[in-house]
Design goal:
heterodimer; A: alpha+beta; Rossmann fold; OB fold (Dihydrolipoamide Acetyltransferase, E2P); 2 domains; 4-stranded antiparallel sheet; 9 helices; 23 strands; globular; B: mainly alpha; MetI-like fold; two-stranded antiparallel ribbon; 12 helices; about 75% helix; transport (chain A)
């Protein structure tokens, strides 16, 4: 086990990248702490699988270095890196039994048979496939196959890191939850460094200690689930995480006030004059519908999703979402909104701007 | 709901029935007709019963031809299948070179059988053929018109040249269908090259390989044109395959009765072998699911 350092790393699928747009993964410096559980979160094509494949050595980066501990492994082949990886679609060796599938990585490394048998039994219990050990892998259902893939990833104890590339895509929802719990437990018990790629925010937020959010080949924020919720560093983080995502409204900033079509919203901090595209972002959780306070709004519809209500409204020509408690009364004359000043973030060209205490 | 009864619907199957009758049933029945009768021309037929079948089954000539035929099919399968897999494994997987390989390899498949025969007939000639002349100049005694071994080597090499591409193309299609993740997983599992072949590539190719074996078996079992053009079945009867023998008997000697019995049995052997293949393939598939 080791910490993994990415030093000036970038990757382009073009042999001679001309502009930054040619890079699938833009320059990145980051240290993955030993024994932490990370989630790499982002929409499809944002470069998260590219990053994962560079770490596992399936791809050679166009520039930069990767270090495992203090050792530079940039040019080391996959086998030497001693990592385990689980792919999006199940990879099983069809002609082998479930037992041989699980034993395969150990046998290839010449471990002795008693150890292999013991370890296979242990993993089989963990993934709940003890009864199927002697069955051929072909003919099993997709989720059984994926459990074998997961098992094969976890069978070695001494791996530097465990990488998961959207491993639960093909698994049934209830099984998903169970396997995720298993993975968390495994992480807790053995303390492997784990990197889990997903585009599902629930998966990311429940699995990881730290979530790495990627957008357009760039890491836009690394933080705990709480940090991502409270202070999204980038508007993408704001609307990608949360259900519904953060409201982003174009505004002008004047000291500690935001002006939206002439109306003003109080901010908790004061800001220097900003250039470019200026927006404020506020999560629906921090917007209140009211009869008297705040600015005028036109409510379009109210959705009751069980735990709370989501109000879809129009605010100076922009869509805005508001979350109200399940028991909150909503009446027709509630046509104003108020923002919680402490939770209004200011963005210039999509990046969060830090203000000074007013 | 009331079922409509309309016997005129039978007319709809008439075209197919006619087509099949003229293309298969009537010619086949003609052969059956010949096989159980004797004729001396003038459209005079005499009932012979199973006499021709008995004669053919007792004839050493037919058994020899069948033996040569089986030997030939087994040799070319034993060479073409592994060689085809080997070629497919070493082909570039994508890009310009991959396309070029595919085109080059398809070329032999596009050449008409008798042209293939002519090419090799000339190629192997000691007086003007590049291969024959070179071998002769090197002091190797090679003459496919006189030496049985040389004749066999020539037609086997010719068949390998002509048909290995088919196996390679089918195997290549099987290989292409393997997702990258399998190879990546194998790398991570530290599987050796042999294990990658044994546990990933071979199982994924199994289906197409069965088809390749079946096609190559049937085709080689019915081979006629190429050896006929190269050796004419000689020297002696050394390369007289079943179909060559059949033609000699039917058109050369005009023994229509025995030839008809012969061809019916020939047909049944191919049918039997194909059925065995089909059964094996379907049971394998069933075991998979």
């Amino acid at each position: 086990m080791a910490k993994i350092t990415l030093d000036n790393l970038a990757h382009s699928y073009f042999p001679a990248p001309k502009s930054e747009d040619d890079f699938a993964l833009k320059e990145l410096n980051h240290v993955w702490d030993d024994g932490a559980a990370y989630a790499l979160l982002g929409s499809s094509g944002c470069g998260k699988s590219t990053l994962l494949n560079i770490i596992s050595g399936l791809l050679h980066p166009s520039q930069g270095r990767i270090l495992f501990g203090d050792k530079d492994v940039t040019d080391a082949p996959t086998a030497e890196r001693n990592i385990a990886q689980v792919f999006q679609f199940p990879v099983v060796y069809d002609t082998m039994t479930v037992r041989d599938n699980l034993a395969f990585p150990l046998r290839n490394r010449g471990r002795d048979e008693t150890y292999v048998a013991e370890r296979v039994q242990e993993i089989a219990r963990m993934i709940g496939m003890e009864e199927m050990l002697n069955k051929k892998a072909r003919g099993l259902t997709a989720d059984a196959k994926q459990k074998i893939s997961l098992g094969r990833g976890m069978v070695r104890k001494d791996v530097n890191a465990l990488l998961f590339d959207e491993p639960l895509t093909v698994i049934d929802p209830h099984m998903k939850w169970e396997l995720r719990t298993q993975l968390k437990k495994l992480h807790h018990d053995f303390g492997h460094t784990m990197i889990y790629v997903t585009h599902d925010q629930t998966e990311a937020l429940t699995f990881a200690d730290k979530v790495v959010v990627m957008y357009d080949g760039r890491v836009v924020q690394i933080g705990t689930p709480e940090e991502l919720f409270e202070r999204p560093e980038h508007t993408f983080v704001g609307y990608f995480i949360g259900s519904p995502g953060m409201n982003v409204i174009p505004a002008q900033i004047d000291g500690n006030k935001a002006l939206i079509s002439g109306a003003h919203v109080d901010l908790a901090q004061a800001y220097q004059p900003l250039d470019g595209k200026v927006e404020i972002g506020v999560r629906p959780e921090f917007v209140r519908l009211s009869q008297t306070e705040g600015l005028p709004v036109k409510v379009r519809r109210v959705e009751d999703v069980g735990r709370h209500k989501i109000i879809r409204a129009e605010f100076f020509g922009h869509d805005i979402n508001i979350i109200a408690g399940e028991d909150d009364h909503i009446s027709a004359d509630m046509n104003r909104v108020a923002f919680d000043a402490n939770h209004v973030n200011v963005y210039a060209n999509d990046w969060r701007v830090q203000g000074a205490v007013a | 709901m009331e079922k409509t009864v309309n016997q005129k619907a039978w007319f709809l199957v008439l075209p197919v029935l006619l087509l099949v009758a003229f293309s298969a049933v009537i010619p086949l029945m003609t052969v059956v007709n010949y096989s159980v009768q004797d004729t001396f021309g003038n459209n005079q037929f005499f009932w012979a019963g199973l006499e021709w079948f008995e004669e053919m089954l007792a004839s050493e000539r037919m058994w020899d031809a069948l033996g040569r035929q089986l030997l030939f099919s087994l040799i070319i399968l034993a060479i073409e299948v592994p060689l085809g897999i080997f070629v497919a494994l070493n082909m570039p997987k994508s890009g310009f070179w991959s396309s070029l390989c595919l085109v080059l390899m398809s070329l032999p498949l596009l050449i008409p059988w008798n042209v293939v025969g002519t090419i090799w007939q000339i190629f192997g000639r000691v007086d003007i053929g590049l291969l024959g002349y070179t071998l002769d100049a090197l002091g190797i005694n090679y003459n496919y018109t006189q030496d049985t071994l040389a004749a066999w080597i020539t037609i086997v090499v010719m068949d390998v040249w002509h048909w290995t591409s088919l196996v390679a193309l089918l195997a290549f299609a099987g290989l292409k269908s393997i997702p990258d993740a399998y190879y990546q997983a194998a790398k991570i599992d530290q599987a050796s090259r042999w294990k990658v072949f044994r546990y990933i590539e071979l199982p994924k190719m199994a289906g197409v390989l069965m088809i390749a074996v079946l096609l190559r078996f049937m085709d080689s079992f019915m081979i006629y044109t190429e050896p006929f053009v190269v050796t004419g079945g000689g020297p002696g009867n050394a390369t007289t395959m079943l179909s060559i023998d059949l033609v000699k008997m039917a058109l050369g000697q005009f023994d229509l009765g025995p030839a008809a019995a012969f061809s019916l049995m020939y047909f049944l052997v191919i049918l039997l072998v194909s059925w065995v293949f089909y059964t094996v393939m379907t049971t394998l598939e069933k075991r998979e699911t």
